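Incident log entry.

Two folding requests arrived from the same account within the same minute. Monitoring flagged them as a possible duplicate submission, but the sequences differ. Recording both here for audit purposes.

Request one:
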Amino acid sequence: MTTVRTRFAPSPTGFIHLGNIRSALYPWAFARKMQGTFILRIEDTDVERSTSASVDAILEGMEWLGLNFDEGPFYQMQRMDRYREVVAQMLEQGLAYRCYMSMEELEALRERQREAGEKPRYDGTWRPEPGKTLPTPPAGVEPVIRFKNPLDGVVAWDDAVKGPIEISNDELDDLVIARPDGTPTYNFCVVVDDLDMRITHVIRGDDHVNNTPRQINILRALGGQTPVYAHLPTVLNEAGEKMSKRHGAMSVMGYRDVGYLPEAVLNYLARLGWSHGDAEIFTREQFVEWFNLEHLGKSPAQYDHNKLNWLNNHYIKEADNARLAELAKPFFAELGIAEAALAQGPDSASVIALMKDRATTIKEIVENAAMFYRTPAPEAEALTQHVTDAVKPALAELAAALRGCEWTKEGVAAALKATLAAHKLKMPQLAMPVRLLVAGTTHTPSIDAVLVLFGRERVVSRIEGALSA
């Protein structure tokens, strides 16, 4: 049985968004499911647009999501000698030929074809055929190298997503596989790489469907076996446009930087074009166990930010609090709360445990938890509204009760309840001013749990300090 070998072959010409990284997730999952090999190949032949920063973004995004590769990264620019070797071999075997038609001549030919209502294409002027006399090569002109595409028959493959696809060879002209300076072209490099790396399954975006018949013909000419192709439909943004940087897509690491968990993003991404019955939430291990090509979607998938938030909230609630506390540190730092301040305040893991249930991101948890590590600065208008002369006696009595009660959620709740009863108040009439004086805001989780985390000394001194001011 042939070992499954898949690949992710991004171009490092910009940041990598969810639509891009999905083309890594599925071949990774298939390789893992089949105990195969997952290869990373960087297609960096676009020298003007390729950057090392983009390569770093690809590697960082894959690492964050846990998409570990078994071989690579291989860089096409480091394989130029191999491509030139194969071009020379094809010329020698009559699989390719030198074409001296200039760009001006080619454009003039295409213009004539358009005017005649024909499909613009190279006409084979320099293609050697039995009995054909070729023009004399012009002096001082470096030729391109063209592949001798079959003249008749069809290219057919059974796409794992789109089903049977068939293209007539007379629809395809002779592809340029090397430029005048000898540098190979994209479609040629891809074939040599897939052949050398023994790729068995090509799982990629459907923007490559038009390249596939050309690549299959070159692969067959070189004696290679056609891999299984699975062309994934486009990922659309919420406006129904193709997901792209130009249309506001966020980079993969951008999700980390606003506080999404990698397991939530991976879970969401998996469902963005694949399904396993009605399962919405599953672990990485379940995803690999369930994954197959048969359940890849045939229609474009549409990004839904609310769905991602719902998933992230689920994973935040399930996550270990110590892990969340570690992940939260840079977000606290962004708010000017250094690790020293965290160390002086309540245990951050305990704070996060209290704050996380309703949060959609770690950043949101931290924004709500910041009150535990700052000196309260309630607005004057809120103080006037809630800390009235009528409630001050109750606040003084509560402070005294809190000095002596058991410092647990139950003990604090009992002190609050006794104070409410003694002063015939309702909970908001007491809880609101307490929240303002202790935390600086009227919006907190359960007041007894919040006070316990702040600590007896802080709570009592802040209430008494406000009353004596």
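Request two (distinct sequence, not a duplicate):
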Amino acid sequence: MDLHEFQAKGLLRSYGVPVPDGGVASTASDALRVAKELKGDAWVIKAQVHAGGRGKAGGVKVVNTFSDVYDVSSHMLGMKIVTKQTGPDGKIVRRTLIEKATDIKQEIYLSFLVDRDSEQHMIIVSSEGGMDIEEVAENNPSAIVTERINPVTGMGLFLGRKIAKKIGLDSSLLNKFADVAHKLYNVFADHDGMMLEINPLVVTGDGDIVCLDAKMNVDENALYRHPKIEEMKDYGELEPQEVRASIFDLSYVSMDGNIGCMVNGAGLAMATMDIIKSYGGDPANFLDVGGGADVNKVREAFKIILTDPKVKVIFVNIFGGIVRCDLIAQGVLNGSDEVPSDRSIVVRLDGTNVEEGRKILEEGAAKTGLTIVTADTMADAAQKAVELAAGEEKPAKKKTSAKAKE
């Protein structure tokens, strides 16, 4: 789950991490009020969307007068931010963060991540802050320092001082940097963070260290431990399909392809996307209905896929262990009844009650005119789905069911 910058900074502030004074606005009048309360002679107005690269897309502006605060906020609120992370559809700006401008002497990049290889947290720091870390890694990899964090000792002050020396910070800043890094790590670890990125972390003209930006992502599977974090979820930033999936406790992630996937089990879902790619196709989503899915849950999952306009073909890939294949089949037919569609459905069923499931699909296709293509293997099904999505092969118009042989 992504947090907005102002939400992440609220967490940082509660841990004593230095961040600029600021406030959130949803109208230009609110922005003007915040700026006047902050006082000062310069302010930064930042679009609050779940995406990096806002500055290059016009989502970060520095202004010097109250009239500019109002005018810039009026323009920014409601605008569409398009960056590499948003895709071509972009994100609509519904809120802005107004902060007092900071006197910047030096910019530093700092982030905490989960390193799956070592099963530890990792800190990444670079003396070249304010830039995309990917660009720094490509152009000047020696400027990046990485350290794995021992889960027992945590982010001790000693490690912070060590990193500060490696990036060439002045000796007078070693303890300040170590203290800020230590507090940032506590925020990250205490909230089951997947990523916390401060870019830039700045040294001010007065010799202080301040977090000028904050991007944070937390593990959705751990939200039951953090009810206050869960309340921060901004449904306006999610795809409509993702919002509906969350209501029915479905694991759904929207993607850019045209083959909708409905699978039971995260591992099988990943394998399904991989095999679609191996045959030259592109999955439109990750959708795991879970091992204990019932007819209603499957129906809702299928409806979610059908409401995605990008989807040309639906690939249902089920291994019936806990969940029964006949329940999956009935859920597919129920979903098709509620959201009529002429899109082809490729089905691979195996496991518990597989024959009953296939019979339900065949009979349902005969009654409704649905185009259902069945397959014995995952490879057969993936190949059929990719061919249908590309328009290379189409079942005969009156044909409602086809069986792919190995």
